[in-house]
Structures are given as structure tokens and as C-alpha cells.
Amino acid sequence: MPSAALGGARQLVRQSLDTLGMRWFTQPRPPGNTAAERRAALWNRNPATRYAADHGHLHVPTGCTPEGLRLDAWLYRQRRAWRNGQLTPQQQTALTELGFVVEADQASAG
Questions:
Q1: Is residue 88 part of a domain?
Q2: Residues 54-96: pLDDT tens digits?
Q3: 51, exposed or middle or buried, with CB in 10 Å at 0-12, 13-18, 19+?
Q4: HSE value, Cβ hemisphere, 13 Å, CA-based, for 62
Q5: Structure pTM?
Q6: By residue range, what is the domain housing residue 92?
Q7: Whole-angstrom Cα distance, residue 84 to residue 57?
Q8: Side-chain-side CA neighbours of residue 72 (13 Å)
Q9: Judging by beta carbons within 10 Å of its beta carbon (0-12, 13-18, 19+), is residue 73 exposed, middle or buried?
Q10: How many structural domains are present in the chain?
Q11: What band does 39 get if pLDDT is binned at 50, 70 and 90?
């Protein structure tokens, strides 16, 4: 197909889509809709904080699900992220203040 015909076909397709109500430019995502914002929100209302306050430790039993969050799995992911250098210094400080243990041998020493 010659380029002029291709350009005409594209214009026809665009006009057809415009007629159907196609939105060509997306709107910005509402706040709290990105993965990073959801993670930040979880840090701000973290059930680990309440668990540590209620129990005095973060030795969470398997399957513990306060507020619908599988806390043992979340803590496991935080350990892995810490080891891989994926936590911010603020996140590391917040976990440390809760008595978070990165390595298993630290738990037995403390």
C-alpha cells in the first residue's frame, strides 16, 4: 500500500475511533494507585507496628493475618528486600525500632 493511502487509512481509523468516543490521552492516575504509593501507604498503616505494640515482638506465627495482611509473609519479604538493599534507610529504621530481626541468628542472640 502506498504511503499516501496508508496515511489516509490511518486518518479514517482515527476519525472512526473519535466517533466512538476514543480518549487519546490518558488521565493521570489518582493518588495511591501506583505500586510505590500502595507500598508507602502500607508502611504508614502497617499492622506490624500494632502487632509489635500488642505482643512486644515480631516473632509472628505462620499464617498470622491481622487486618487481612499475611504478616509473616510480609515480614519475610521485608527481610529479603533488606538483604537485597531494596529498603530505604527510613524503612530500615522503622523496622529496627519495632525489633525486626534480619537474620535468624540475631533472633537467638536477642
A1: yes
A2: 898 888 999 988 878 889 998 999 999 999 999 888 888 888 8
A3: buried
A4: 0
A5: 0.55
A6: 35-105
A7: 24
A8: 7
A9: middle
A10: 1
A11: low
